[in-house]
Structure formats: structure tokens, C-alpha cells
Amino acid sequence: MRPLWKTVCIAACVIIFFSIASKAQCGNTKQSLSYDTLITGTGNDSHIFTLSQFDPSIGTLVSAKINSTISVNYGFTLKNVEAVQRDFSVSVGRYDHYTSASLSAPYTNLIDTNIGDFLLNPGDTVSKSPYTILYRNSQNDSITSDVVNFLGNSTVAFDYKPITYTNLTGSNVYYYSATANDTIHFSITYYYCSNTILANDLLSFSAKKENTETIKLSWSTNNFFSDRNYEIQASIDSSQFSSVASIPEDITKKTYQYDYKIAPGKKGKIFFRLKIITTSGSTKYSEIKMIDIDEETLSKELFVILTHRIII
Fold first, then answer.
1. Could you tell me the pTM of the whole model?
2. Number of C-alpha atoms within 13 angstroms, CB side, residue 239?
3. Residue range of the domain that includes 47
């Protein structure tokens, strides 16, 4: 592997581095929400992309699609420094690799582009100014299960490490230099189904972590129906919910509260919603609220950070 500065190579090959099917409440048409960023580099730069998580109060997350659209420019100079004629072959490869705590496995992609064959007499040189060898190449990774790590009100980070390299054959001794640059359009698209929100029946619904043992659920109404029950439901993935408790309508109340007890040793996120059931059998749902049990009780201001790390 060789850097981009001028060098005489003694090698046969030069490598140049540059830097869920929807469940409850998903009967509606699937919708999407995207976040993206655009960055340029030298083809061998490492990047950290930090994008927003999916807010579970918006709806039920079905899948997440990660997309990387890249364009690469490349130029080079090759000189035959031997005393005999040589037939050189040059190709350029692109390797993309990104990881994230939200992904079950890293994503990798490899593309090879042929530059050409060059028959050079002793002392002959061939040069090409930087030109586009890869244009808006789109690479995708779809996540249809284990989407819980994409849920929340914070961010999800991706460690992106591309490599642009050269394969050169035809001689063991030559002079070669190259330059490259790339443009990366990185995005995440969330596909979700809208929640059924009771705008006319519920004025509010909230969940708050009181301490390490209790989450307080609160809601208020502006309509009173003696035939209703409020079923509190909980989930670990915002898709599969189970009943926690059932509270009957009380026409003397406008507000309700319920203390949800956190099981000892419980970690991660937990999602809550209300299922409103009438004696006639009709059912509606509230929006979904999320609590991250691992977070401290005191709120913290969240910053969305995009850093750019360069390998020298």
C-alpha cells in the first residue's frame, strides 16, 4: 500500500490509500422520514456521521434504510524507469466500510474500475488529470428487524471508513503518483406507520422517569365517557405491546396518573402507549412515549455533532 506522494515502487501491485412487517396501528400507508449529510474528502478520510434517531411518538418504525451515494475523481502519472519496454495495467478500487452500535453487523462494499493498459518504452510517461471514475454510486443497507437502536430522541452515529486504491501490474520497478477526491452523500430513511392519536379525546399523554425505580405516566382528557377503560401498554421495541394495567374512566377526573415500577436490573428503552377501549368494543390508541432507563434522571441538553477525522 502506497500513499499519494511521489515514489519509486518495487512491487507487483500498488495500493494507494485515500483517505418488520408493521403490527398494531400499522394499517395506514407507510410513510418515510429522512436525515442526511454531504461531505468531501481525499478518498481515504475517516468520517463519523451523526444523524437523528426516529422519534417513536411520530409512529411505529417498520424499517430503516441507510444509503451512501459516492462519487470519486482520480488522476495519476506513471513512468517506466526500466531499460526495457513494459506493458502496464492500471485499475482503481473503492472499498466502503461503515459500522455503528445500531447495526448488527458492519456494511462493506467493493468496486473495481479499470483505467487502462499502457505500453511504455524506457523513460516513457503517461499521465491523466483527475477525472470522474465513479459517479453517484448508490449503496444501501436495509434494517427490517432490531430497529430499537434507531428509536429515541437523540442521535445514532456511523463510523465510515472508505479506501480508494490502485492496482498496478506490468513491472516491479516504476515511478507512480496519484491523487483522488470523493464526495459522500450519507443518509438514513425511516419507514413507519402513523400512530392513531386521539386529538379529541386526549389532551396530553406523558411518561417521565421519576427515579431508578419508577416511571410516572400521566394523561388528561376533555371528554368524559363512563364506558371507557384506559389500558396501559408497554413494549421494548415500540411494535409489540403488552398490557400493564387497566384503569376505568372516572367522570370526576380530568387527569390520570400511573406509577410503572421498573424491574430490578432492567436496561435499555421502554415504550408506553394508552389503549382506549369502550364497552361497545371500539379501540383507539394514544401516541407512543419512550423512556431510556439507562439515562440519568436529570435531563441533559443533547448536541448533534458531526466530526471529520483525517488519516495522514
1. 0.72
2. 18
3. 7-194
